[in-house]
Design goal:
The structure is a homodimer. Chain A is about 35% helix and about 25% strand. The first copy, chain A, is built from twelve helices and 14 strands. In chain A, strands 1, 2, 3, 4, 5, 6, 7 and 8 form an eight-stranded mixed β-sheet that branches. Chain A has a six-stranded mixed β-sheet with strand order 12-11-10-13-9-14. The longest helix of chain A is centred in the last third of the chain and has 21 residues. The interface between A and B is large, with 68 and 68 residues.
């Protein structure tokens, strides 16, 4: 199935290259993606200065698929990260959380296909060995190298294949694109997730680029997946950490696919400063521009994750407005977005708003059901708690690929929005057969 | 689909009647079920003295299916109830919650196919009209009659068909069995849920019988479904309420199918005292026997609900033991039991214990993952947080119809168990097409 998806993607890319609506490419450091301007989803990707990439195959995933990746900055960079809040943390997460206190980094090694979680002391040793092997071969201090893993939990890493593959990884540094890295970190993802933003910093054009991977075990209260962000803008490490935390809160922590929180979720950002700007601080005049660009980029990436939710056919935005408090709005929005009954109804194009009311009700948000309004896109299906009998119009909206469900509680002024997707038979198939 | 299931059930019943392994029937008041002794699931049902039943068709569900039922006690009874804690409560729930304060009842009217929830003032008027119509025709005070509804939310009841059908309901009182009532309250249930227990009270044999219906929108923190219990044992109303609350806590509040909590969940028990025993009080010598029988009965009924979980192929008991606190044990058990990833893995016979660790981890129970043990039935798949490599043996256990997942946290002495089922493609199909 993976292989098929992957092949289809490659064929689409080739078709795109030969397509007259293709508008242009930016290639830096050998990186860059080819997408036509008529494709809504993937604009031209710009890569920040001084970053190099490599991918390799260690046969962790099925044969023929890259499963090792390396992101390298030619200059030592500031680094910041957010990590899963799950009490069960994979070895690489535990390691990164300790290392990141220095705020310095230069390389990130990633493997997909195996999460190196629940692997005990051996798992921790394996993670360390991957770091030291890669660092030694690249010629940097091991303290500057980070490691992330994603995939099956509870299986030891095949180190006898990984260590030699790290050799070909470091040996081929600079030959791969950022897009290749996006491909190599995929597990059940059906397409790579990559985006970039440019931002003017004191007259110079800085770049932030990012990739991430989903697509199951996505729930809020942490970084919710693997995400690697790189920028050539100089920014002080605490400022970088604050900016990342803030962006993650508004993007990756606002999406849910199945309500399951992973053991490995990590978002890392490296800022190498090669733009040559004066190092950004929280109080810098240009800091808000950087923050906005980062918000914007992480929002796009988080949207791509939900769009590629396992088995999903629709992107659904749940908006709860006029709640008594922000906490109430969030509770109700997540209860709706995580409800299996709401999500299956969306899959079935059934404007079954009763399930939305029920979910808001068990979320224990404060509201009077007899004042609530519900909308599917701009079709009002509930007014003052009762049906408007616009099911037919609402059903028409539901056949669209994007749906916004709005619940107006009329209980205050707070609001919250959460991105999710529908729950389909394919989700079951993918997850029932994940390890087979 | 319903019709098919129903027909299949009737055919099975007929087959059972003609089957040599059929062991005997108890029929009282025209009620009683025919089941062979070789069928594990449904033992002989005994009906308490003085209860009569009726069913009718008001075309709320699909044509040809009974959707109205009446449970009547020839003597005024003590009545107790537990109700959904959802903030959005259906009109009949709101009404019952007020009426039950008197502790007295004699009749329960139930309709299936329409929940009469989110139907505003009209819904409340409709619920009252159903009660007064039925009470007047039976010849009792409306204050002694109760109403419950289950089915689609947000659609007004078809009162023009219901009111005449109540005429045929009350007119045929005594002609139906308790089993017929169990059939009439079904929505997505594939089989009726009925059970009974006998209990010695001061030398006399009292009876408690019950029916309930599932099978989606099942989550804890309330009665979780409709359940009607009847007994001929005399018991004081506050004692009855305490006994019911305690039993519900240990049975219906310990099951979860999809984590969705309904707007209509109600459990009612009527005790008409026709056994002639001295009225039971909390301090009565025979009260514990009554409590145990009720526990036992509600446990059986709650088990039947999970066994009939929408699309379920397996009954799964999640046991969390040696937790630091009862709250910790419960949080972890419910997180595992509600995890879509755990439930799809069970469907796929995949002993993917990593998802169990991850769920316990995001439940924020206090434990050291490196001390945790996990068992599938009696096969230990995790010892001290790492794999024992018994996946093959565990997979064999998973192909059985009943599975116990035990997570030993080694963090204290508290434990909790929760019943659930797997998550299958049929769940999606049933819920995507529920209203079509």
């Amino acid at each position: 199935m993976y292989v098929l998806y992957h092949r289809a993607f490659v064929l689409i890319q080739i078709a795109i290259r030969n397509n007259p609506c293709f508008s242009g490419v930016v290639v830096e450091n050998g990186s860059g993606m080819l997408y036509p301007s008529c494709m809504k989803q993937a604009p031209v990707i710009t890569i920040p200065k001084g970053f190099f990439f490599a991918v390799a195959e260690a046969a962790i995933k099925k044969p023929g698929r890259k499963d090792l990746a390396l992101i390298f900055s030619e200059a030592e960079a500031s680094i910041a990260g957010t990590f899963t809040t799950n009490a069960v943390k994979a070895a690489p997460v535990q390691l990164c959380m300790t290392k990141i206190r220095t705020g310095k980094g230069q390389a990130i090694v990633v493997n997909s296909g195996n999460a190196n979680a629940c692997t005990g002391r051996q798992g921790m040793k394996d993670a360390r060995d991957m770091i030291t092997t890669a660092a030694r071969q690249i010629g940097i201090q091991p303290s500057l190298a980070y490691i992330c893993s994603t995939g099956v939990i509870g299986t030891p890493l095949p180190m006898q294949r990984i260590i030699p593959a790290i050799g070909s990884l470091t040996g081929s540094l600079g030959t791969a694109s950022f897009d290749d890295v996006a491909h190599a970190v995929m597990t059940t993802d059906t397409f790579p997730k990559i985006a970039s933003r440019t931002v003017k910093i004191a007259g110079r054009q800085g770049v932030i680029a990012g990739i991430c991977k989903g697509a199951g075990m996505i729930a809020p209260n942490m970084a919710t997946m693997l995400c690697f962000l790189i920028t050539d803008i100089a920014i002080e490490k605490k400022t970088l950490q604050a900016a990342l935390k803030n962006s993650v809160r508004k993007s990756f922590n606002r999406i849910t696919i199945d309500g399951d929180m992973s053991t490995n979720d990590t978002a890392l950002i490296m800022a190498n400063g090669l733009l040559g700007n004066r190092t950004l601080q929280l109080t810098s005049r240009d800091f808000p521009a950087f923050g906005n660009a980062l918000d914007n980029l992480t929002s796009e990436l988080s949207r791509l994750i939900v769009r590629d939710g396992e088995g999903a056919t629709k992107l659904v935005e749940v908006v709860v407005k006029n709640a008594k408090s922000g906490a109430d709005a969030e509770k109700a929005a997540f209860a709706i977005a995580n409800s299996s009954l709401v999500k299956t109804a969306i899959f079935g194009n059934d404007a079954n708003w009763g399930r939305i009311m029920a979910a808001a009700g068990y979320a224990r948000a404060h509201f009077n059901p007899e004042k609530a309004d519900i909308f599917f896109n701009n079709i009002q299906v509930v007014k003052n708690g009762i049906a408007t009998n616009k099911d037919r119009e609402a059903t028409r909206e539901m056949t669209k690929k994007e749906l916004t469900i709005t619940l107006d509680l009329h209980a205050g002024r707070a609001s919250a929005h959460v991105l999710t997707c529908d729950l389909t038979e394919d989700y079951i198939r993918i997850n029932a057969e994940y390890r087979t």
